[in-house]
């Protein structure tokens, strides 16, 4: 299993994937930097009770759609390395189980997005300090706004990796990913059971952990369904 | 006898919808052989090979490789198999060395093995170039290097010379021919060209429209070639009639007569008759069918059914 992941990390060299992993958080933070620089007086007045909280809210607002589009692109690129070179047959004719091949691709996606989320957290701290919001950084809150959406978005990581692996034409996976991104921007108004709402961490109980729990549970379920389908399917 | 069987399939069948792509194929490949798997495009070669590698699931029938059931012990079997299915798979953005490293990490063999296989296929000098700049022949050799990485006992190569230029074909062929003697590997190699198989295989299996229509040694296949005797005479019509009146039935041909599959005795008898009839015999020549003819004939017969 570790070997397969190591191999997958080797394969994404020189593929712009790492560039995108950095681009996501940098894009979000640049926009917020512009936002807060241009409207510094107004925003610092608006959030004067909790400057860091205000910043984090604004970051999250942009981060959720970015995660959606980012995960669609990253999972598609991971799967496309094998599609493009017709390598599925070569990889699966090796003495490794289909379970570990699929799980490694899923895990690779998880790790890359985790790195992206972590960078976003670190970047938020730097931005806050540059904006002179003081040194009483609310680390716990920050961890929550960075990693809760990451866990709550799990069903979509599992779905997109399955789509990207199953359908050679990446238009399918990317279309669904892009539609998801647009939907996620209006997700707050949806009922609680709609998965697109979970990464916003809003629910009727006002408890973000519920969203995280649903996300992890359904994410695991979709991963298992995708896995079973991958094992059952003939290799093209 | 059974113990030295490397691949054995029984009633192997694959259906796509209602169509039988592979139908009741019984492969039998013994240790140390170069088995040529022959058939026109679309005959079911690749589908059969995919099933042997566990990439596709048989609709019916069984596969035993190294005496192990493929269904139950897929991974144990694949550990001893190297493969190259159709055009080679390579990651163009990586170098030859990195390509092999990507596979090596999956199968857990020592790093030194990469240099070994690179030198077997003579790519050591090109190891650090991105593969996208390779010629097709080099890519194909890299594919074979990848297949050899895990020190396999069985090598399955699907159309390894497809699309190569003559020198590329020669290189790959020599490489394949050296394997059983130098490395003790059994090889299954498929092709749609009989001349290819003829030059490297010891055993041959012919598949057409999903069915095995021949499986034996190349020599046996050669023996199937009919030899015709062509007799050139001055007056074909008279000669044919004269023979017929003596109860010797032959076919008419250009400038003479054609005898199909006749014994030496019979040939002597016919010539004697011709001489007695005062017909001038210019030439008696044997026309042997080439392997290619036999192959085409076999496929043709199957097609007319």
UniProtKB/TrEMBL annotation, chain A:
Domain of life, source organism: Bacteria
Transmembrane spans: 16-38, 58-81, 102-133, 145-165, 172-189, 209-231
Keyword Iron included in the entry's annotation: no
Keyword Methyltransferase: no
Keywords: Membrane, Transmembrane, Transmembrane helix
Full protein name: ABC transporter permease
Pfam families per record: ABC2_membrane_4 (PF12730)
